[in-house]
Amino acid sequence: MSDSFFTDSELANLRKISMEEVGELIEEMKTKHGSGGDSAEWLVAAHKMFHTITGSAGVAGLMEISELAAEGESLTDPDAVPPDKDAMNRIRKIMGQIEHHLSEPNS
User: How many other CB atoms are found less than 10 A from the CB of residue 87?
Assistant: First the structure.
């Protein structure tokens, strides 16, 4: 048994569910980004999705994904200065890195 609040079996199930949720949210962000992606509306939606990914992945022990999502959450903060071109490129890169972690969960 691990030092986690969850049993090993529960944690494995939680990770599976979290990875599915993260994958769905990344796909939704990519789809919405393709149809007007730098808009204020997209940034608010992306901020909420990154926030959800940060928490879900963190609870499931997927720390690399959680840390990437926290950076994405910060970059899409609707109360901050809108992201410039470099920040938007970083947001896209973060999304790709999260996808990579999903496809290779032990990386």
Answer: 15
Number of compact structural domains in the chain: 1
Q: Is residue 29 within 8 Å of residue 45, measured between CB atoms? A: yes
3 part of a folded domain: no
Tokens at residue 40, please?
Answer: 């204020």
The C-alpha angle 93, 89, 49, rounded to 5 degrees, equals 65
CA distance 13 to 39: 36
This model's pTM is above 0.85? yes
User: Which residue range forms the structural domain that includes residue 90?
Assistant: 8-103
**CA–CA separation, 71 and 63 (whole Å):** 12
Are the CB atoms for 4 and 61 separated by under 8 Å? Answer: yes
The total number of residues written for the chain in this structure: 107
**Domain with 41 in it: what CATH number?**
1.20.120
Q: pLDDT of 10-62, one tens digit each?
A: 989 999 999 999 999 999 998 877 655 568 888 889 999 999 999 999 999 99
Kindly state whether residue 47 falls inside one of the protein's structural domains.
yes
